Amino acid sequence: MPQQAKTTPSRPRQAADLDNWDIETDVAIVGFGGAGACAAIEAADAGAQVALFEVASASGGSTELSSAEVYLGGSGGTRVQKACGYEDSTEDMFNYLMAAGGDLAHEAKVRLYCEESVGHFDWLVSMGAQYKNSEYEERAIMALTDDCLLYTGSEKCWPFREIAKPCPRGHNLEVEGDNGGPLLMKTLTAQVEKRSIQVEYNARALTLIINPEGEVLGIVVRMDGKEKNVRARRGVILCAGGFVMNTEMLKQYCPRLVEGPMPIGNPGDTGAGLLMGQAVGGALINMDQHFITLPYYPPSSLTYGIFVNAQAQRFINEDCYHSRIASSALDQLGGKTYLIVSAEDYAHPPFMNAPIVGTGENVEELAEEVGLHPGMLRHTIEFYSEHAARGEDPLFHKSPEWLKAMPPPYAALDCTLGEGAIYAAFTLGGLDTRPTGEVLTTEKEVIPGLYAAGRTACGIPRSAAGYASGLSVGDATFFGRVAGSHCGQRSCGQRSPGSETR
Amino acid sequence: MPQQAKTTPSRPRQAADLDNWDIETDVAIVGFGGAGACAAIEAADAGAQVALFEVASASGGSTELSSAEVYLGGSGGTRVQKACGYEDSTEDMFNYLMAAGGDLAHEAKVRLYCEESVGHFDWLVSMGAQYKNSEYEERAIMALTDDCLLYTGSEKCWPFREIAKPCPRGHNLEVEGDNGGPLLMKTLTAQVEKRSIQVEYNARALTLIINPEGEVLGIVVRMDGKEKNVRARRGVILCAGGFVMNTEMLKQYCPRLVEGPMPIGNPGDTGAGLLMGQAVGGALINMDQHFITLPYYPPSSLTYGIFVNAQAQRFINEDCYHSRIASSALDQLGGKTYLIVSAEDYAHPPFMNAPIVGTGENVEELAEEVGLHPGMLRHTIEFYSEHAARGEDPLFHKSPEWLKAMPPPYAALDCTLGEGAIYAAFTLGGLDTRPTGEVLTTEKEVIPGLYAAGRTACGIPRSAAGYASGLSVGDATFFGRVAGSHCGQRSCGQRSPGSETR
User: Fold this and answer.
1) Cα distance between residue B22 and residue B243, in whole Å
2) How many CB pairs under 8 A join A and B?
């Protein structure tokens, strides 16, 4: 039987087959994005020797490409929430996130995240992240000023506003424009560099090293063209991002993302972390789920319009979060989505960039141009308009602030995936982990010595319908810290308790 | 480091750790349902020595619990299709199944299945399965007579009728009542017994046995309270069913099925086959997908009614297959589903058993009792009725044979999951396999010596929205045969070619 020459994430290496350890450390971390940086800082602060391996030639990961909003609150409010006049309760935050996650939510993670969220804000500030005591009040996908606090989910929207008292929880760094990601990674990178953490760039993690009992002892990393066996006495933390850049994995798990949507991520989001974890028994869960968005605002005035499907029916309250709308739009039978607005509310949406496929002095003209049933479209617009004029939306409960009659003339934007409108996506599936970051098998047993955080793990955000901006970087930095701290304090060769009820 | 005492599917055993082989054979098959039986027959007919391990004390599996319809056609038609006047083309069958599978479809499997479907029919007949040259013309979930041919999917329904020429492909055994499953398993069991196949009942497969190269050499089976090491020189075929009986796995992968829907399956559908495959590197795919049905007919007269959601909107052509309707119903925002019918079409649906939540001499009375918006419900019924009277359904394209005006009085059945209506479900996720049945890693490499078929593999049926009765037993028996034949002819220690583009 010939030995396979190539080392791939799916084939763990047996420690017994190694000649030697090239590098020895307590904690080995794969990936120097937001999760990896935070894991490294906490592991070092817990007294562990830490080595951080990054495939790119600089830190950053997908956190650097993001706006780096963090979704935080509860415990009476962060310093910014309080300064802006909001008192946020942990229960409201918990109830909101549980409702947003629906039956996919991980209660123990949500609970921990909500309880320690204000502490995480303070920690980020202690690392040098600066947040102004100010609110950004526009309906926006991100704050383009240096203001901090904004609504980034569907908190004020039906049905969530009936489940939990709304509160803005998106925290934007004090920086003009969409420049939060580079600033946050610069801040965290400086903190890593201040500590005696070994950082190896251009270092590709290839596969995990295990012993016959299935414990993870280290990791094989390719550096300078050579495979190096890295011994991680306390454990390995996989913070290597998601798999939105791996077309084969998208075909397997998220076929909808293979063509059409723009991937949001860095070239390292190849799923290697997921594969390495799976190869030693880690369960990949929620693999079909993804964030997908139709960034239809700004301008926020388009929120006065209505989305309709191929049947000219409305299907969503248009004031909710953009990925919730995208997710619902893509589920519609007939595969069509149009945004219909009164001309008085129309302005070109620069991010979505959807083509105008119809205009009309009246509904019938519009319907003919768009190819919708005129009688049905007339009823949909009239029914909506009549109630909206009274501040009511009996079907979808759009908030009164976005309700007004829709007088002609009209314009229709084609928001159908594949017809020109921009959709953008990243993956939400990953390794099943305890709140500590310990990786679990399908049978809910801990794999000793293995942790995951960020999009390599399946974290707080579980679906596009329940997403809020700030959940990914919030989750990655928070659970990166938890994993770093837990792994950093793990006794060498300690076997964690066997199983846990999720 | 203490050895783990318990042998579980997630921990493969290294061949080097064995003292001896207790049983030696060419092909070891786990599970004596439809897939396992067919795999065993073909492996034996290919000249291999075969051992079949079944955890229950008799053959059967979930095939025995089913109606055992098989979905077959193409190549001009099966003997029954031809006798009933249908000429079925392979391309129509292929196009239908590809459209039904949508972006989840596995083209190579669908292609093979369609091309060899008539041959499979003839093989089943050669095994002793009897099919009458007769058609069952009622709209039905299953034929309760001994007639054979019926429509079991959405072939005649929009949008599929525009994609492929409709043809009935469900083949029902010549037996009265819902007794196809026991008859098919009796027939196949007799064929297994005629061959020199070692059959072990009360034998629980525990975990696979591998060598350091990752090749599967055999399987550990518990018989009479003892663990037996089974050497399978040509390979192991996992035909151990799905995971609908494993609550923890449902929580992880199909949370919607944890409470509410009735599981369809046998007690052995614990996911053990999936876990064993995953533990040696097999990729579990499509794990969130499941068959789920709302068996709302018979009586077929209810098809004259309309389904509406919480917004009193229609959402589906009501003439399509029952699991397509259930799937769509469960996706509706607001979480409510009602079936509204004219009293003249009403009769109690014995399988669905949904409660009547409203009746009315007019729409307003009905709307008030049900809790729907009266103006919206009036428009929905009037718009539908007005067009239906002309044989038209401009929104959802229900077939003319099911279109007629809906005069008052009305009745409304509450079909909301959890409100009394019966939903039933089983899982469609499983090991990724080649059409041959060879199990693939996430990196699309074949795991030498490992095969899967039936619901342990991810086969032809991939979603409730695209399901048709007869696809599970059709797929299980067909791909069971393919796997048996391929594994039965595998050279001992042969390493299959490395990878394949899906």
Assistant:
1) 29
2) 126
Question: Which candidate from B3, B14, B313 shows the least CB-CB separation from A313?
Answer: B313
Give the Cβ contact number of residue A491 at 10 Å: 8
For residues A116 and A72, give the distance between their C-alpha atoms in angstroms, rounded to a whole number.
9
**Preferred mutation among A247, A252, A274, A386 to probe B, highest tally of B CBs within 10 A:** A252
Q: Letter for the amino acid at B464? A: A
Q: Which two tokens stand for residue B444?
A: 């699309």
Round to whole Å and give the CA distance between B165 and B185.
32
Q: Which of B215, B252, B373 sits opposite A394 (nearest CB)?
A: B373
Which residues of B fall within a CB distance of 8 Å from A394? 373, 376
**pLDDT of B307 strictly over 70:** yes
Spatial distance between the Cα atoms of B332 and B316, rounded to a whole number of angstroms: 11
Q: Which residues from A are below 8 Å from B493, CB to CB? A: 1
Residue among A314, A394, A441 whose CB faces B10 most closely: A441
Sequence-separated contacts (24+) of A223-228 with Cβ below 8 Å: A227/A7, A228/A22, A228/A23
- CA A481 to chain B, closest CA, distance in angstroms equals 25
Min CA distance, A488 vs chain B (Å)? 21
Question: Whose CA is closest to A307, among A290, A324, A292?
Answer: A324
Say yes or no for a CB contact (<8 Å) between B10 and A333. no
Angle of helix B471-488 relative to helix B34-45, nearest 10 degrees?
A: 30
Determine contact, residues A308/A468, Cβ cutoff 8 Å: no
- Least CB–CB distance from A395: residue in B4, B373, B443: B373
Q: DSSP of B32-91, one letter per residue? A: -SHHHHHHHHHHHHTT--EEEE-SSSSS-HHHHHS---EE---TB--HHHHHTT--B-HH
The answer to whether A377 and A453 have CB atoms below 8 angstroms apart is no
pLDDT tens by residue, B234-287: 999 999 999 999 999 999 999 999 988 999 999 999 999 999 999 999 999 999
Which value does ipTM take for this structure?
A: 0.93
Q: What is the pLDDT of residues B17-72, one digit of tens each?
A: 999 999 999 999 999 999 999 999 999 999 999 999 999 999 999 999 999 999 99
Q: How far B34 CA lies from chain A's nearest CA (Å)?
A: 26
Chain B hits for A15, Cβ within 8 Å: none
Using only C-alpha atoms, chain B has a radius of gyration, in whole angstroms, of 24
Q: Is the pLDDT of residue B158 over 70?
A: yes
pTM value?
0.94
Shortest Cα distance, chain B CAs vs residue A88, angstroms: 27
Question: Are B394 and A373 an interchain contact pair (Cβ–Cβ within 8 Å)?
Answer: yes
Mean pLDDT is lowest, of A98-102, A172-176, A442-446, B289-293, for A442-446
Tokens standing for residue B137: 């013309």
Distance separating alpha carbons of residues A407 and A366, to the nearest angstrom: 13
Q: How many CB atoms are located within 10 Å of the residue A265 CB?
A: 23
The partner residue sitting opposite A379, judged by closest CB among B9, B281, B379, is B379
Q: Are B456 and B277 in contact (CB under 8 A)?
A: yes
Chain B partners within 8 Å of A14 (Cβ): 212
> Cα distance from A194 to chain B (closest Cα, Å)?
37
Q: How far apart are CA A87 and CA A83, in angstroms?
A: 9
Q: Is A375 exposed, middle or buried (0-12, 13-18, 19+ CB in 10 A)?
A: middle
From B314, B269, B310, B304, select the one nearest B290 (Cα to Cα): B269
Q: Note the helical H segments in B144-228.
A: 180-194
